[in-house]
Amino acid sequence: MSHFNTRNLLSVISSLAVVFFCAVSASYGEDGLRDPNATDKQIARIIDILMPHEHLSQKKIDVEYSERWLDNFIKTLDYQKAYFLKSDIDAFKRQVPNMPEWLSKGDIRFAYVIFKTYLIRLDERMAQVQELLKQPIDFTVDETICLDRDKLDYPKTSAEAMERWRKRVKYDLLILKVDDKEGQEAIDKLSRRYKSFQKRMHQTDSNELLEMYLTAMTTSFDPHTTYMSASALENFEINMRLELEGIGATLGSEDGYTIIKHLVPGGAAEKEGSLKVEDKIIGVGQGADGPFEDVVDMKLDDVVKKVRGKANTVVRLEVLPADGGKTKDIKITRAKIELKDSAAKGKVFEAGTKPDGTPYKIGVIDLPSFYADMSGMRNGKAEYRSTTRDMKRILEDFNAQGCDACIVDLRANGGGSLPESINTTGLFIKTGPVVQVKGPSRTKSVGENNFKIECYSDHDSDVTWDKPLVVLISKFSASASEIFAGAIQDYGRGLIVGDHSTHGKGTVQSLLPLGEALFSFGAAPKMGALKVTIQQFYRPDGDSTQNRGVLADVELPSITTHMDVGESDLDYALAFDQVPAQVYQKFNLVSPAVVKYLKQASAVRCAQSEDFQKTKRKIECYLKNKDKSNITLNEKKFFEERAELIPEEEEKKQLEDTIKQDGTDIEETPYLREALDITADYVKALQVGVANMPNPATIKVQPAPEKSNVPAPQPAAAL
Fold first, then answer.
1. Residue range of the domain that includes 275
2. Catalytic residue among 458, 490, 499, 543
3. Is residue 479 annotated as a catalytic residue, yes or no?
C-alpha cells in the first residue's frame, strides 16, 4: 500500500476529519434517495485529494477527465442509449467544465440531477413498453435492430424512443422464443422483467449512487481505479480471505426473484440438504421463529445482507422450488464457510509414455486467484490462508506421489495479491527478481514526470518444485497471474501453453480505506475505500505486460483468444512500455527447438481431434458474426442466423462454467488432455533430447482406454 506522503495532504485530511463530525440530518425523497449528507461530501473531497497524489498518472481532474467521467456515468445508467433523450445528454454536457470544482468542494448534487432524470425517463419508457406489450407484433416484417452502442445516438423525441423500444420488445420476445417461451407466457415474463428492473432502479440508495458516480470519475484515469462503498469493500475482503459467515450459497437475480446459483460444498445449506440450485427465495426470516419478509423484487445486495449473518445464528428461507413444487420453509443455521472453490486445488493424471513404457504422472493445480487473508496477516494470525501456503502443500503432495511434472492452470485467474504472486513464483525458483514496479517518485511535486523503479525478488532459496513446469493461460489470466507466468517464462523455468496471450493487465492497485485515512485515532468509520492504480509492473526482462500480456509458447485453438475481453479493449487503459532488464540466472528449460517440436506435435493431435476441429469451426463462426451490429427481427431469418451462433453460445457457456469454478474437482476435458499430452512430450524431450523424439508427422491420437482400465487419479492433499 502506498502512503500519504506530504504534510499538506495530512493537514487537509485532518481538517476533513473535524468537519466529518458536523453531520447534518438527511431527508429522503419519494424515490428512496436521501439528500447528499456530510459523509458523502467528505468521501468525495478526500478522493479528489488522493487521486492526483496516489494515482500513477499524478494528474488532477480537468475538463478532459470530466468528459470521460460524465460519459462513464451515463454508460453505467444507460449503456444502450435506451432511456435518456438527446436533450438530456446535451444539458448534462454543458456542466462538464463545472465538475472539477464541484468535486473539490465535495458537491455531488450533479449525480442526483442525472440519476433523477434517468428515473423519469425510465418510468416514461416502461409505461411505453407496457403499452407495446398489449399490441399485436408482426414477426414477418423485414426490419433490424442495432445493438452497437457506438453506432447509436440518443433518441431526440419520446416518439423516437418508443420506436426504438418497439424493436427492443420484439427482439426480447424472439430471445424468449429461443427458450420455448412464446405467446402470453412470454409477454407476461417480459412485462414482469421490465417492471422488476424499474423497481430495482428506484430502490437505488444514496451509497450506491455515490459509488457509481465516483467510480465513473476514477475509471476516467484507468479501468481499475474504483471507489468501493463500505459494503463493496466488505465483499472484496471476503473474496480475498476466502472465508465468510453465512449459509454457503451463491445468489443471483432473475426477473425480480433471488435465485440459488451455487451451493458451497460442505457449507451450511448443502449440509441441511433442502435448498437446491435454481430454487427461488421469496422470503427471509431471522431466527428460528422470525416472521418472513417478502424479498421479491428486492435488490440482490439487500437480500444477501439478510441471508448472510453470524455463525451459529438461524435464518429461515421461504423458497419456491425449481421443480415447481409447493413453497418450502427452510431453516438453516449459519456457519463459517471456507470458499474452497476459489482456493488452489490439485489432482494427479497420467499421460504419455516414459522410455521404460510406463506413463508420466502429471500433477495439475487449478488456481482461480492469488488470495491472502489480509486481516489475518495484519492481526498476526498464525495460520492465515494464502495462495503460497496452499500451493506449497499441493506441490509437496505431488512430490510424495512421484509426479514427473506439474501444470499450473491460470485460465480463470484474474489476479489478486501481488506479494502472493511473488512468493508463489519462489516455489519454483531459488532466488532472483520476480517483478519490477514503476511508480511516482515521492520527492517530486504533482505534475512532474518523475518515476522510480523498484524490483521485488524472491529471497527464499528453498525450491518446493524443481521438476518440469507448464503454465496454462487464457485471455482471462490477468494481473498477478501475469506476473507469475511472465517470470516463469523469462527464467526459462517452464512452458506457457494456452491462448495467444494473457489479459494484459500490467498495473498494481493499492487499497486505501477512507475511514482509516481520515482518522488516525480510535475506531474509523466505515466509509469504503479507494482502490487506486499506483504502479505499473514489469517482467524481469523489462517488458510490461500492459495491453500485450504474456505470449504463449504453444498456442491452442480457443475462442477466447479472439474475444474483445483483453486490457487493450477497455476504455482508458494505460499504454505498454519497458524498463531496463534485471540480472537473473536462467534455467534454459525451454529452448526454441523444444518449443518448435511441441508446437508441431500439438498441431498434429489437434488436427486429429474432433473436439479441437469443432473449436476451430466455432472460431470461424464467431469471427464471421463478431462485428455484426444489426440483428434481423424477421422470425424466420432470426432463427436461421441463430443456428449459426449456437456453437459460439455453447463455447461461451463452457467458458462461464470454467470461470465460475463450480465444483471442487478438476475435470479432464479435451483441452486439459491436450495440455497433459504437451506436458508429457515436454518432459520426454528434456529427458531424451528433441532429436530422439518421434517425428510429429507420425503421431497418431490413441482413443481413450475404457475407464475400468485406467487407474483412478489420486487427489492432492486436502485443504
1. 243-338
2. 490
3. yes
